[in-house]
């Protein structure tokens, strides 16, 4: 494990993509064909115009009868930029959700993931707080499941890969959820297209596995669906989405500027799930949980908490994982000698390396059969940082001092 000295200049890093979705793009940055495709996707209707030169587009719904946009079909004519500028200005001034969504798609080329829930509408189309929260929670869980599937193909992740998965979601933009019945996520192509691709394939695989179970009574298709990205996390997200509804749908529509990814369907047809699928989804989730094995690992981590019942014997330790496993923390039980070594490393600010099996029970947060604890040498800057981190964790330090009371230096 290597660490950068404090006096070494910082390396240049790839800038995080900025999503200026609240600013209309400049006319020179807009492809007329992409603008037309986005208008059509979001319900705008083309109602004539000069053939081969421009089209006249009107917004969806009864409230947009007095609004129209003139959109050039190409840049072949001198007034194309003027028409594009006027169209973009009209979209920016419009208060319609469809206009905003078109601008988002232009500003940040994105694959769009849509969720629909068939639930009774409230007064004037409003949704109760729990209904709206359930839709958002299901969408968040599903995006996380897709991000996890880009890191590994397993039936149950638990605490594994979550830091990287949450980082992948940072660039995703989320639209409004009118009436708690519909929600749209904009997944930037440059930063997170693999997430959209994996989720698209996983949803179809789960749908096919449910249909196979209904036809044959067998759950074997869910095992094969793991390779497409299916997991317990995805089945739990689908349960959250469908529960309390008459049905739910999810669709992935590809960014017109980027085209359709390889091995994916172009139609954007929604994948549908119904309350009748809930029992199969629950059984599949339980199957994934049972089938995922423990994993042999060698973990490097900083000791953040220690505890044992007396001055001698085995004790429990909590590590902040630095390397060896895609989890933030892990708990383990050590025999007396390994516990002593971990304690000494903790006091001088050194991480330790330990091997064992990462148990699926409890979400891959515990290491069983832990042994072979050894301190890991690091440079002075990293050691100082670990010491400050330890001192800032007052609870962890108190546990260590209390549990080691009565021990002699040579123990």
- The N- to C-terminal Cα distance equals 29 Å
Global outline: elongated
Number of domains: 3
Q: What average pLDDT do the residues reach?
A: 84
Radius of gyration: 27 Å
Tally of extended strands?
A: 13
- Give helix % range: 25-40%
What's the helix-strand series? Answer: HEEEHHEHHEEHHHEEHEEEHEEHH
Structural class category: alpha+beta
Order of strands in the sheet with the most strands?
5-6-4-7-8
What is the beta-strand fraction? 15-25%
Q: With helices defined by DSSP (H or I, 4 residues minimum), what is the helix count?
A: 12
Largest sheet: 5 strands, antiparallel
Unreliable spans: 1-21, 393-411
Give a verbal description of the structure:
With 411 residues, the chain is an alpha+beta fold. The chain folds into 3 domains: 27-107, 2-Layer Sandwich (Metal Transport, Frataxin, Chain A), CATH 3.30.920; 110-291, no CATH class; 295-403, OB fold (Dihydrolipoamide Acetyltransferase, E2P). It is 38% helix and 20% strand. It is elongated.
């Amino acid at each position: 494990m290597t660490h950068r000295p404090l006096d070494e200049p910082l390396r240049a890093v790839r800038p995080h993509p900025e999503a200026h979705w609240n600013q209309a793009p400049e006319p020179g940055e807009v492809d007329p064909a992409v603008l037309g495709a986005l208008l059509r996707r979001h319900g705008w209707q083309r109602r004539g115009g000069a053939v081969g030169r421009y089209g006249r587009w009107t917004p969806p719904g009864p409230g947009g009868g007095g609004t129209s946009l003139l959109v050039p079909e190409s840049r072949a004519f001198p007034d194309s930029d003027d028409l594009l500028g006027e169209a973009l200005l009209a979209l920016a001034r419009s208060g319609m959700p469809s206009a905003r969504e078109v601008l988002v798609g232009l500003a940040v080329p994105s694959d769009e993931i849509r969720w629909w829930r068939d639930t009774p509408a409230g007064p004037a189309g409003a949704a109760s707080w729990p209904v709206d929260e359930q839709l958002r929670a299901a969408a968040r869980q599903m995006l996380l499941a897709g991000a996890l599937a880009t890191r590994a193909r397993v039936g149950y992740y638990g605490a594994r890969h979550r830091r990287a998965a949450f980082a992948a979601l940072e660039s995703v933009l989320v639209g409004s959820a009118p009436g708690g019945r519909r929600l749209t996520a904009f997944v930037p192509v440059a930063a997170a297209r693999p997430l959209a691709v994996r989720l698209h394939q996983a949803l179809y695989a789960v749908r096919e596995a449910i249909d196979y179970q209904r036809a044959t009574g067998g759950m074997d298709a869910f095992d094969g669906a793991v390779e497409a990205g299916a997991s317990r996390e995805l089945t739990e997200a689908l349960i959250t989405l469908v529960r309390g509804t008459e049905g739910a749908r999810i669709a992935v529509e590809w960014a017109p500027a980027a085209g359709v990814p390889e091995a994916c369907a172009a139609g954007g047809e929604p994948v549908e799930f119904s309350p009748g699928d809930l029992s199969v989804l629950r059984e599949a989730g339980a199957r994934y949980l049972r089938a995922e094995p423990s994993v042999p690992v060698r973990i490097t981590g900083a000791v953040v908490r220690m505890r044992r019942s007396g001055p001698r014997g085995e004790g429990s330790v909590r590590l902040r994982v630095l390397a060896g496993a895609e989890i933030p923390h892990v708990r383990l039980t050590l025999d007396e000698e390994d516990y002593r070594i971990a304690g000494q490393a903790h006091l001088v600010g050194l991480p330790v390396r330990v091997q064992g099996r990462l148990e699926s029970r409890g979400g891959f947060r515990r290491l069983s059969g832990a042994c072979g604890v050894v301190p890991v040498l690091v440079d002075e800057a990293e050691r100082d940082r670990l010491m400050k981190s330890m001192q800032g964790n007052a609870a962890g330090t108190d546990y260590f001092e209390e549990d080691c009371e009565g021990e002699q230096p040579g123990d």
